[in-house]
Design brief:
With 306 residues, the protein is α/β, with parallel strands linked by helices. It contains 8 helices and 14 strands.
Length: 306
């Protein structure tokens, strides 16, 4: 049973005129299920010009803030009619992700929700630089909404790394499962665990080796795969996930994890943001970025609470 609660939800809205967008709809569903309050937030880029242009820019910013506030209030009033406690806030700042993070630190919500938006060139739901900065630095769980369909008893896929690659702290797998269970408990979902590992031979694809060394690879791969399987299922069992809901996949994580999520029709994938050794910041590697962009369902990103 998860001890995590989502009592206060912050929704960072990129287009306030859009009304009940996907992020707001997710927040509304969670609020109905948990009794959580919602804050609708929009950040306006801060005026950086000087002199007369600065004064004109400030006047425009004030006008934009008033107009944006009106749009947010209209959306808030629709939610209030459903007996949801909703506040609205408009702030200025640049870059945008820093304004959002300041609001997180100021209001201390339990969950931040953003919406992945379509990029016209690819016509795909791709994450922006602001999204990735929030993934790297947000101190609370970050829900990135990609799917449009409502969560109805969804399958929730927790992406684990029981071998703690890239200096990932071992406690993070527990946080991922805990967050997955917290969401599952309020939307009547089921939690599954997954781990994607690369084939043993892929580590030596570009390494010249003798015939004897090459001949030894199949036996070593069998031992490697057995160790991976044993470690993953031990970790899943430790977190209360039975074998029928534990999915071990061999392949490229950038394609295999999204492929697994599609095949099992997952409504949400829970991933961890990891702290890289020697750096006092959160690091998202190229593989994780490709996974996040390729996934078609919603993604919840968590980090260790300590």
């Amino acid at each position: 049973m998860s001890g995590r609660k989502f009592d206060r939800i912050l929704v960072a809205i990129a287009d306030p005129a859009a009304g009940l967008n996907k992020a707001v709809r997710r927040a509304r569903a969670l609020a109905h299920a948990t009794g959580a309050s919602i804050e609708l937030f929009h950040a306006i880029p801060q005026v950086m010009s000087l002199g007369p242009a600065h004064a004109s820019g400030e006047q425009f910013t004030r006008y934009e803030a008033e107009q944006t506030g009106g749009w947010l209030e209209r959306t808030a009033n629709r939610l209030r009619r459903e007996e949801i406690i909703v506040t609205t806030s408009v702030q200025t700042g640049y870059p945008i992700h820093e304004a959002i993070l300041r609001q997180v630190r100021r209001t201390k919500p339990d969950l931040l929700i953003i919406e992945a938006r379509k990029h016209s060139f690819f016509a795909r739901l791709l994450l922006s630089q602001t999204d990735f900065e929030l993934i790297r630095h947000c101190p609370i769980p970050l829900l990135i909404v990609k799917g449009l369909a409502a969560w109805r008893s969804p399958r929730i896929l927790a992406a684990l790394d029981p071998f703690h690659a890239h200096d990932k702290p071992s406690v993070l797998d527990g946080e991922i499962i805990d967050a997955a269970q917290a969401i599952a408990s309020v939307v009547h979902g089921s939690v599954h665990a997954a781990h994607v590992y690369r084939p043993f031979a892929s580590y030596f694809a570009a390494v010249p080796m003798s015939e004897a060394a090459a001949a030894a690879i199949p036996a070593q791969e069998k031992s490697y795969t057995a160790a991976i399987r044993r470690g993953f299922h031990d970790a899943a069992t430790r977190h209360g996930i039975g074998r029928k809901k534990a999915h071990l996949v061999c392949g490229d994580p950038a394609t295999a994890l999204p492929g697994l999520a599609r095949s099992m029709r997952a409504g949400l994938v829970v991933m961890g943001a990891m702290s890289r050794s020697g750096l006092k910041r959160i690091f998202i590697g190229n593989t994780a970025e490709r996974v996040l962009d390729t996934l078609q369902c919603d993604v919840l990103v968590v980090r260790p609470r300590n």
